[in-house]
C-alpha cells in the first residue's frame, strides 16, 4: 500500500469507535499538547456543565423524565454516571410490554458532539425543542409505548481531562478504553494495537464505568441499544471483533433498519454493516458485541454521527466534532430526527 494511501486511511478511520488511532498519530498529538483547533465553547458545554443542564431540564419535566446518579469504584478510583429515564406515564415505566431503549453517549471523551446530541434528544423528549418535521401530537404517538434510558456522558472522568486541554484523550480517568473493557473477546490485540489509545484494562469490567453500564443493561433488559460516537458517518451492528454479522432474522432486521436510516438521514453515504466488516479492522471487548451476545439485546448498534476526514490526525477536536454553527446545527437536527425515527420503527422491526 502506498504511503500516502495508508496515511489517508489512518486519518479517516482514526475516530471510528471500534478502532484506534495509530500510535504515531497519538504521539504527534501528545507532542503538540493541544489540538490545532480549540473547543468552541459557544457550541459545546463542559462535561460537568452539560450534566447540570440536563438535570435542570429533567427537573422541569417530572411528568416525563427522571434522573439518577449511579456510583461505583474503589478507594482509589470512583466514577459517577448520570442516567435519565423517559416515559410518558411514569407509573407504567416498568411495564414490560413497552419497548425499552438504552442509549449511551460520551464513551470516548474527545467526541464531544456525542453528548451534545444526548442533550438535544432530551430537549426533544421534554418537548422544549422538537425534532425536525415533528410536532407535539406526532411526538406523543411515537413515544406512547416506549421507555428510554439515556446515559448522556458515560465517561465523565475522562471528559474532565479533555476539558482541561488534552483534546485527543478518549480513555477514562485512569487510561482505560471503555470500549475495550467488555467481556466479549476481551484482551485480544491486533497488530496495530496501541495502549495509548485502546488499553483494555486489567480484566473485563475492571472499570467502574463499565460495571455501571453492565448493571443498567442487565436490569433494564433493553430491546434496542445504541452507543453513539463520532469520527466518521456510520451505522454499525455486531460484530466488532470479527468480520461477520449474526445469522438469521435478527441480523436481517437490524440491517434493514440501518439501511432505512441511511437513506433517510445519510443520503446513502453512511458506512453500514458490522463494525469489523464495514471498515476492515477488528476491535475486541466492545460494548455493542457484549450487548448483543451476552445481554441478548435484539438490536444492538453503534452510530457514528460525524467525522472530518480532511482534519489532521493531531487536530482531534476538528476531526471528531463540528467546529462551526451551521455544521453543528445540521448534525444535531439530522441525528436527532434519526433517533426519533428509530423510536418509531423499532417496534415494527421487532415484531
Automatic annotation (TrEMBL):
Its cofactor is Zn(2+). Residues 43-327 form the Peptidase M14 domain. SMART domains: Zn_pept. GO terms for cellular component: extracellular space. The active site is at 304 (proton donor/acceptor). InterPro entries: At5g42320_M14_CPD, Peptidase_M14. One of its GO terms (biological process) is proteolysis. It comes from the Eukaryota. Transmembrane segments: none annotated. GO terms for molecular function: metallocarboxypeptidase activity; zinc ion binding. Belongs to the peptidase M14 family. This is Peptidase M14 domain-containing protein. The lineage of its organism: Eukaryota, Viridiplantae, Streptophyta, Embryophyta, Tracheophyta.
Amino acid at each position: 500500500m502506498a504511503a500516502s494511501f495508508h496515511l489517508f486511511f489512518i486519518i479517516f478511520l482514526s475516530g471510528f469507535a471500534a478502532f484506534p488511532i495509530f500510535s504515531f498519530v497519538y504521539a504527534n498529538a501528545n507532542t503538540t499538547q493541544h489540538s490545532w483547533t480549540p473547543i468552541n465553547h459557544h457550541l459545546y458545554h463542559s462535561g460537568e456543565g452539560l450534566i447540570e443542564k440536563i438535570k435542570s431540564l429533567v427537573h422541569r419535566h417530572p411528568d416525563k423524565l427522571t434522573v439518577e446518579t449511579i456510583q461505583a469504584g474503589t478507594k482509589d478510583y470512583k466514577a459517577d454516571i448520570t442516567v435519565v429515564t423517559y416515559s410518558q406515564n411514569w407509573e407504567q415505566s416498568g411495564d414490560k410490554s413497552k419497548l425499552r431503549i438504552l442509549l449511551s453517549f460520551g464513551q470516548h471523551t474527545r467526541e464531544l458532539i456525542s453528548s451534545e446530541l444526548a442533550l438535544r434528544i432530551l430537549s426533544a423528549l421534554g418537548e422544549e425543542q422538537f425534532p425536525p418535521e415533528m410536532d407535539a401530537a406526532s411526538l406523543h404517538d411515537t413515544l406512547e409505548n416506549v421507555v428510554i434510558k439515556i446515559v448522556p456522558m458515560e465517561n465523565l472522568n475522562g471528559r474532565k481531562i479533555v476539558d482541561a486541554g488534552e483534546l485527543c484523550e478518549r480513555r477514562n480517568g485512569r487510561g482505560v478504553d471503555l470500549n475495550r473493557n467488555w467481556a466479549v473477546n476481551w484482551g485480544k490485540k491486533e497488530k496495530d494495537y496501541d495502549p495509548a489509545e485502546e488499553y483494555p484494562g486489567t480484566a473485563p469490567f475492571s472499570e467502574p464505568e463499565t460495571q455501571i453500564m453492565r448493571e443498567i443493561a442487565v436490569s433494564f433488559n433493553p430491546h434496542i441499544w445504541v452507543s453513539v460516537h463520532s469520527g466518521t458517518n456510520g451505522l454499525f451492528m455486531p460484530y466488532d471483533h470479527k468480520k461477520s454479522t449474526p445469522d438469521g432474522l435478527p441480523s436481517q432486521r437490524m440491517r434493514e433498519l440501518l439501511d432505512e436510516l441511511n437513506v433517510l438521514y445519510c443520503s446513502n453515504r453512511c458506512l453500514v454493516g458490522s463494525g469489523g466488516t464495514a471498515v476492515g479492522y477488528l476491535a475486541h471487548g466492545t460494548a455493542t458485541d457484549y450487548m448483543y451476545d451476552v445481554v441478548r439485546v435484539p438490536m444492538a448498534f453503534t452510530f457514528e454521527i460525524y467525522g472530518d476526514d480532511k482534519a489532521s490526525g493531531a487536530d482531534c477536536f476538528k476531526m471528531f466534532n463540528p467546529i462551526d454553527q451551521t455544521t453543528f446545527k445540521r448534525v444535531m437536527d439530522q441525528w436527532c430526527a434519526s433517533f426519533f425515527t428509530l423510536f418509531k420503527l423499532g417496534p415494527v422491526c421487532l415484531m
